[in-house]
Amino acid sequence: MKPTLTQLISEGKILVSDGAWGTFLQAKGLQSGECPELWNIHHPESVLDIAQGYIDAGADTIETNSFGGNSFKLQGFGLANRVYEINRKAAEISRQAAGDDKYVLGSIGPTGKILMMGDVTEEELYDSFKEQAVALYDGGADALVIETMTAIDEAEIAVHAARENTPCEVICTMTFDHLTTGEYRTMMGVSPSEMTVSLKAAGAHIIGANCSNGIEGMIKITEEIRSVDKDIPVLIHANAGLPILQGICTIFPESPDMMAAFAPQLVKAGANIIGGCCGTTPEHIHRLVEVLK
User: For the whole prediction, is pTM greater than 0.85?
Assistant: First the structure.
Protein backbone atom coordinates (compact mmCIF):
# COMPACT_ATOMS: atom_id res chain seq x y z
CA MET A 1 0.00 0.00 0.00
CA LYS A 2 1.55 3.30 -1.06
CA PRO A 3 1.97 6.11 1.48
CA THR A 4 -0.42 9.05 1.54
CA LEU A 5 0.62 12.49 0.33
CA THR A 6 0.87 13.79 3.87
CA GLN A 7 3.07 10.85 4.83
CA LEU A 8 5.44 11.61 1.97
CA ILE A 9 5.54 15.27 2.97
CA SER A 10 6.22 14.37 6.60
CA GLU A 11 9.29 12.49 5.34
CA GLY A 12 10.57 15.70 3.77
CA LYS A 13 9.70 14.95 0.16
CA ILE A 14 8.86 17.76 -2.28
CA LEU A 15 6.24 16.63 -4.78
CA VAL A 16 5.56 17.96 -8.27
CA SER A 17 2.03 18.18 -9.59
CA ASP A 18 0.65 18.68 -13.11
CA GLY A 19 -0.19 21.80 -15.12
CA ALA A 20 -2.95 23.35 -17.21
CA TRP A 21 -5.71 21.26 -18.79
CA GLY A 22 -8.11 23.64 -20.52
CA THR A 23 -5.73 24.92 -23.18
CA PHE A 24 -4.85 21.37 -24.18
CA LEU A 25 -8.50 20.37 -24.48
CA GLN A 26 -8.99 23.40 -26.74
CA ALA A 27 -5.99 22.37 -28.81
CA LYS A 28 -7.60 18.96 -29.25
CA GLY A 29 -10.83 20.50 -30.49
CA LEU A 30 -12.90 21.63 -27.49
CA GLN A 31 -15.16 24.39 -28.77
CA SER A 32 -16.29 27.55 -26.99
CA GLY A 33 -19.47 26.79 -25.06
CA GLU A 34 -18.83 23.05 -25.04
CA CYS A 35 -18.71 21.13 -21.75
CA PRO A 36 -15.06 20.14 -21.05
CA GLU A 37 -16.07 17.40 -18.63
CA LEU A 38 -18.24 15.65 -21.21
CA TRP A 39 -15.03 14.88 -23.07
CA ASN A 40 -14.44 12.19 -20.44
CA ILE A 41 -17.33 10.30 -22.04
CA HIS A 42 -17.06 11.27 -25.70
CA HIS A 43 -13.27 11.71 -26.13
CA PRO A 44 -11.58 9.71 -23.34
CA GLU A 45 -8.50 9.07 -25.46
CA SER A 46 -7.83 12.82 -25.73
CA VAL A 47 -8.25 13.34 -21.99
CA LEU A 48 -5.94 10.39 -21.30
CA ASP A 49 -3.32 11.87 -23.63
CA ILE A 50 -3.24 15.09 -21.59
CA ALA A 51 -2.91 13.22 -18.30
CA GLN A 52 -0.24 10.93 -19.73
CA GLY A 53 1.75 13.93 -20.94
CA TYR A 54 2.14 15.21 -17.38
CA ILE A 55 2.93 11.79 -15.97
CA ASP A 56 5.59 11.31 -18.66
CA ALA A 57 7.01 14.74 -17.71
CA GLY A 58 7.66 13.37 -14.23
CA ALA A 59 4.69 14.64 -12.23
CA ASP A 60 4.01 12.81 -8.97
CA THR A 61 0.31 13.71 -9.07
CA ILE A 62 -2.23 14.14 -11.84
CA GLU A 63 -5.57 15.91 -11.58
CA THR A 64 -8.82 14.88 -13.24
CA ASN A 65 -10.86 16.57 -15.97
CA SER A 66 -13.65 17.38 -13.53
CA PHE A 67 -13.10 20.99 -12.41
CA GLY A 68 -16.60 22.03 -13.50
CA GLY A 69 -18.16 18.67 -12.77
CA ASN A 70 -20.54 19.75 -10.02
CA SER A 71 -24.30 19.57 -10.50
CA PHE A 72 -24.73 23.35 -10.79
CA LYS A 73 -22.19 23.77 -13.58
CA LEU A 74 -23.31 20.64 -15.42
CA GLN A 75 -26.93 21.77 -15.20
CA GLY A 76 -26.03 24.58 -17.58
CA PHE A 77 -25.23 21.93 -20.20
CA GLY A 78 -28.31 19.83 -19.43
CA LEU A 79 -26.10 17.25 -17.71
CA ALA A 80 -27.08 17.52 -14.04
CA ASN A 81 -28.28 13.90 -14.08
CA ARG A 82 -24.83 12.68 -15.22
CA VAL A 83 -22.63 14.04 -12.42
CA TYR A 84 -21.63 10.63 -11.09
CA GLU A 85 -20.94 9.13 -14.52
CA ILE A 86 -18.82 12.07 -15.72
CA ASN A 87 -16.77 12.41 -12.54
CA ARG A 88 -16.15 8.71 -12.08
CA LYS A 89 -14.94 8.49 -15.67
CA ALA A 90 -12.65 11.49 -15.11
CA ALA A 91 -10.96 9.71 -12.22
CA GLU A 92 -10.73 6.42 -14.11
CA ILE A 93 -8.93 8.13 -17.00
CA SER A 94 -6.37 9.82 -14.75
CA ARG A 95 -5.97 6.58 -12.80
CA GLN A 96 -5.06 4.84 -16.04
CA ALA A 97 -2.35 7.44 -16.71
CA ALA A 98 -1.07 7.44 -13.14
CA GLY A 99 -0.76 3.68 -12.78
CA ASP A 100 -0.32 2.30 -9.30
CA ASP A 101 2.56 4.52 -8.18
CA LYS A 102 1.48 8.08 -8.97
CA TYR A 103 -1.35 9.97 -7.26
CA VAL A 104 -4.69 11.00 -8.72
CA LEU A 105 -6.14 14.26 -7.40
CA GLY A 106 -9.85 14.56 -8.08
CA SER A 107 -10.49 18.17 -9.14
CA ILE A 108 -13.46 19.98 -7.60
CA GLY A 109 -14.05 23.60 -8.58
CA PRO A 110 -16.48 26.23 -7.29
CA THR A 111 -20.18 26.03 -8.12
CA GLY A 112 -20.60 29.63 -9.22
CA LYS A 113 -23.27 30.08 -6.54
CA ILE A 114 -22.93 32.59 -3.68
CA LEU A 115 -24.41 31.75 -0.29
CA MET A 116 -24.67 35.32 0.96
CA MET A 117 -26.67 36.27 -2.14
CA GLY A 118 -29.22 33.55 -1.48
CA ASP A 119 -28.35 31.73 -4.71
CA VAL A 120 -28.14 28.42 -2.90
CA THR A 121 -28.48 26.82 0.52
CA GLU A 122 -25.69 25.21 2.53
CA GLU A 123 -27.44 21.85 2.19
CA GLU A 124 -27.62 22.16 -1.60
CA LEU A 125 -23.91 23.01 -1.79
CA TYR A 126 -23.02 20.12 0.50
CA ASP A 127 -25.06 17.62 -1.52
CA SER A 128 -23.48 18.78 -4.77
CA PHE A 129 -19.93 18.50 -3.46
CA LYS A 130 -20.73 15.14 -1.85
CA GLU A 131 -22.00 13.70 -5.14
CA GLN A 132 -18.89 14.80 -7.00
CA ALA A 133 -16.46 13.70 -4.28
CA VAL A 134 -17.95 10.20 -4.01
CA ALA A 135 -17.84 9.72 -7.79
CA LEU A 136 -14.18 10.78 -7.99
CA TYR A 137 -13.25 8.44 -5.15
CA ASP A 138 -15.15 5.57 -6.75
CA GLY A 139 -13.23 6.22 -9.97
CA GLY A 140 -9.89 5.85 -8.24
CA ALA A 141 -8.87 9.26 -6.87
CA ASP A 142 -6.28 9.10 -4.07
CA ALA A 143 -7.04 12.63 -2.89
CA LEU A 144 -9.51 15.39 -3.68
CA VAL A 145 -8.35 18.90 -4.58
CA ILE A 146 -10.97 21.58 -4.02
CA GLU A 147 -9.50 24.48 -5.98
CA THR A 148 -9.86 28.05 -7.21
CA MET A 149 -12.16 28.91 -4.32
CA THR A 150 -12.83 32.56 -3.44
CA ALA A 151 -15.51 32.27 -0.70
CA ILE A 152 -14.47 30.68 2.59
CA ASP A 153 -17.98 29.38 3.38
CA GLU A 154 -18.20 27.46 0.10
CA ALA A 155 -14.68 26.10 0.58
CA GLU A 156 -15.47 24.90 4.10
CA ILE A 157 -18.65 23.15 2.95
CA ALA A 158 -16.72 21.41 0.16
CA VAL A 159 -14.07 20.23 2.62
CA HIS A 160 -16.71 18.87 4.99
CA ALA A 161 -18.52 17.05 2.16
CA ALA A 162 -15.29 15.43 0.95
CA ARG A 163 -14.02 14.49 4.43
CA GLU A 164 -17.34 13.09 5.64
CA ASN A 165 -18.17 10.98 2.59
CA THR A 166 -14.84 9.62 1.31
CA PRO A 167 -11.61 8.30 2.87
CA CYS A 168 -9.57 10.59 0.59
CA GLU A 169 -7.07 13.14 1.77
CA VAL A 170 -8.58 16.55 1.10
CA ILE A 171 -6.66 19.48 -0.39
CA CYS A 172 -8.22 22.94 -0.63
CA THR A 173 -6.75 25.91 -2.45
CA MET A 174 -8.03 29.43 -2.95
CA THR A 175 -7.14 31.97 -5.62
CA PHE A 176 -5.74 35.33 -4.53
CA ASP A 177 -5.42 38.66 -6.32
CA HIS A 178 -2.49 40.99 -5.68
CA LEU A 179 -3.88 44.32 -4.42
CA THR A 180 -2.30 47.72 -4.93
CA THR A 181 -1.58 47.72 -1.19
CA GLY A 182 0.72 44.74 -1.72
CA GLU A 183 -1.66 42.38 0.11
CA TYR A 184 -3.28 39.26 -1.34
CA ARG A 185 -7.04 38.69 -1.13
CA THR A 186 -9.59 36.48 -2.87
CA MET A 187 -12.41 38.12 -4.81
CA MET A 188 -14.51 37.71 -1.64
CA GLY A 189 -11.88 39.39 0.56
CA VAL A 190 -10.26 36.34 2.17
CA SER A 191 -6.54 36.60 3.03
CA PRO A 192 -4.09 33.66 2.92
CA SER A 193 -3.81 33.72 6.71
CA GLU A 194 -7.60 33.71 7.17
CA MET A 195 -7.84 30.83 4.71
CA THR A 196 -5.24 28.85 6.62
CA VAL A 197 -7.03 29.08 9.96
CA SER A 198 -10.49 28.38 8.53
CA LEU A 199 -9.61 25.48 6.23
CA LYS A 200 -7.48 23.74 8.81
CA ALA A 201 -10.37 23.96 11.27
CA ALA A 202 -12.70 22.57 8.58
CA GLY A 203 -10.49 19.50 8.28
CA ALA A 204 -8.39 20.05 5.15
CA HIS A 205 -5.26 17.89 5.15
CA ILE A 206 -3.41 20.18 2.72
CA ILE A 207 -4.10 23.83 1.83
CA GLY A 208 -2.66 26.34 -0.60
CA ALA A 209 -3.23 28.58 -3.60
CA ASN A 210 -3.74 28.21 -7.33
CA CYS A 211 -4.24 30.44 -10.36
CA SER A 212 -4.23 34.29 -10.51
CA ASN A 213 -0.49 34.59 -9.82
CA GLY A 214 2.81 33.58 -11.32
CA ILE A 215 5.19 31.55 -9.19
CA GLU A 216 6.98 34.63 -7.81
CA GLY A 217 3.74 35.98 -6.33
CA MET A 218 3.03 32.59 -4.80
CA ILE A 219 6.17 32.94 -2.66
CA LYS A 220 4.62 35.77 -0.65
CA ILE A 221 1.32 33.91 -0.34
CA THR A 222 3.16 30.85 0.99
CA GLU A 223 5.10 32.99 3.44
CA GLU A 224 1.84 34.41 4.79
CA ILE A 225 0.41 30.90 5.20
CA ARG A 226 3.53 29.88 7.10
CA SER A 227 3.30 32.97 9.32
CA VAL A 228 0.22 31.46 10.96
CA ASP A 229 0.88 27.72 10.54
CA LYS A 230 4.30 26.08 10.32
CA ASP A 231 3.08 22.52 9.90
CA ILE A 232 0.13 22.08 7.54
CA PRO A 233 1.25 20.85 4.09
CA VAL A 234 1.00 23.49 1.36
CA LEU A 235 0.22 22.97 -2.35
CA ILE A 236 0.91 25.72 -4.89
CA HIS A 237 -0.27 25.67 -8.51
CA ALA A 238 1.00 28.87 -10.17
CA ASN A 239 0.18 30.30 -13.55
CA ALA A 240 2.96 30.71 -16.12
CA GLY A 241 3.11 34.39 -15.20
CA LEU A 242 0.38 37.01 -15.44
CA PRO A 243 -1.71 36.85 -18.63
CA ILE A 244 -1.01 39.23 -21.50
CA LEU A 245 -3.59 39.92 -24.22
CA GLN A 246 -2.07 39.79 -27.71
CA GLY A 247 -4.78 40.49 -30.25
CA ILE A 248 -7.53 38.01 -29.43
CA CYS A 249 -5.15 35.58 -27.73
CA THR A 250 -4.19 35.39 -24.06
CA ILE A 251 -0.50 34.66 -23.58
CA PHE A 252 1.18 33.49 -20.38
CA PRO A 253 4.77 34.74 -20.59
CA GLU A 254 6.79 32.59 -18.19
CA SER A 255 8.89 29.94 -19.90
CA PRO A 256 9.64 26.62 -18.17
CA ASP A 257 13.10 27.95 -17.21
CA MET A 258 11.66 31.18 -15.78
CA MET A 259 9.12 29.30 -13.69
CA ALA A 260 11.60 26.71 -12.46
CA ALA A 261 14.05 29.42 -11.40
CA PHE A 262 11.69 30.51 -8.61
CA ALA A 263 10.83 26.98 -7.44
CA PRO A 264 13.64 26.71 -4.85
CA GLN A 265 12.49 29.99 -3.27
CA LEU A 266 8.94 28.65 -3.14
CA VAL A 267 10.18 25.52 -1.35
CA LYS A 268 12.17 27.68 1.06
CA ALA A 269 9.00 29.67 1.78
CA GLY A 270 7.28 26.44 2.80
CA ALA A 271 5.59 24.83 -0.20
CA ASN A 272 5.46 21.02 -0.26
CA ILE A 273 3.68 20.30 -3.56
CA ILE A 274 4.38 22.51 -6.59
CA GLY A 275 2.67 22.42 -9.95
CA GLY A 276 1.13 24.65 -12.57
CA CYS A 277 -2.13 26.28 -13.48
CA CYS A 278 -3.05 28.45 -16.49
CA GLY A 279 -0.45 28.57 -19.25
CA THR A 280 1.73 25.78 -17.91
CA THR A 281 2.68 22.75 -20.00
CA PRO A 282 4.38 19.38 -19.56
CA GLU A 283 7.62 21.23 -20.36
CA HIS A 284 7.07 23.50 -17.34
CA ILE A 285 6.44 20.46 -15.15
CA HIS A 286 9.49 18.65 -16.51
CA ARG A 287 11.71 21.62 -15.61
CA LEU A 288 10.22 21.74 -12.11
CA VAL A 289 11.02 18.06 -11.73
CA GLU A 290 14.61 18.64 -12.86
CA VAL A 291 15.11 21.52 -10.44
CA LEU A 292 13.30 20.08 -7.43
CA LYS A 293 14.27 16.42 -7.66
Answer: yes
